[in-house]
Amino acid sequence: MDSSRNPKSEAWLRYADDLGLSPFHLDRIVPQAAALDSEQAISGAAISLDVSFAAPRSSSTSGTLGGRSFSSDIGEPPPGGASAPEISKRSPSQAFVPQVPGISLFEERLENDSLERIRTDIGPNCTRCKLHKARTNIVFGVGNPKAQLVFVGEGPGHDEDIQAEPFVGRAGRLLTQMIEAMGLKRSDVYICNVVKCRPPENRLPEKDEITTCSPYLIRQLDVIKPKVICCLGACSAQTLLNTSQGISRYRGEWFDYRGAKLMATYHPAYLLRNPAAKSEVWKDLQDIMALLGLQAPKKK
């Protein structure tokens, strides 16, 4: 309504203005504008985050694994942000944005938690998911409980299921070679998996199985407090980074994860079928060694 053509309306508006009530007629407009501004702000933040997590890395390294051959008798099927440290100089091929895992039960660190308590909480006869139906043993984890470096795989295989220890099969022997090429022993690091029971036919763990079991992995990592977490293969990286993107999008890049630096690389079983990828994994391991202040042993 045009108040200039309606003196009575104009008078009421002036009266409302004198009482300090005039903005009331904007109440239905301002929230909409504010909501739009908020949406734009959120969208802008998402765009800025899109490039903030990918870290550059060095491309100058090459060669065999620490002067030691990767030629093992292994041959299984493949398992299938902040800125990075100064040691990292290689440029990522694509931006990638990981998110914090949304596991509500163990979002916060538990007071006085320990590996033994976690093992007890899982129990010797866990039936929380369907993997218990075919397993022989629960495969908890092995190694130094105060390790600076933790390797995380996807799940136990046949040999692991029998021996109740992770990475003891053919791919495990290759992992041992990788660890030794870094100047370490298996007893210096900690090795575990996303799920504690063997998936049938060595298949990848399914989503419900990961959801059920991965909180115990996160508790293990919180207790150990490693300086570096090395995810072996897409499954472990996708679980901890909470993404469904393929490992080629973020392999060899640094990510911040609950106080640790996290890097994903190819699973040893993948290397058995694709030996050419060993040089890429060695580059990743060299970056980890640089961050930990390690030097590869000299070739004898």
Keywords for this structure?
alpha/beta, Uracil-DNA Glycosylase, subunit E, 2 domains, 6-stranded mixed β-sheet, globular
Quick overview of this protein structure:
With 300 residues, the protein is of the alpha/beta class. The protein is 35% helix and 8% strand.
Structure report:
The protein is an alpha/beta fold and 300 residues long. The chain folds into 2 domains: 3-49; 104-292, Uracil-DNA Glycosylase, subunit E (3-Layer(aba) Sandwich), CATH 3.40.470.10. The protein contains 9 helices and 6 strands. The chain has helices spanning 7-18, 30-49, 115-122, 158-163, 170-181, 207-224, 234-241, 268-273, 278-292; strands at residues 142-143, 149-153, 190-193, 228-232, 255-257, 260-265. Strands 1-3-2-4-6-5 form a 6-stranded mixed sheet, with helices on both faces. A hairpin with a 2-residue loop joins strand 5 (255-257) and strand 6 (260-265). The longest helix is centred in the N-terminal third of the chain and has 20 residues, at 30-49. Residues 22-106 have low confidence and may be disordered.
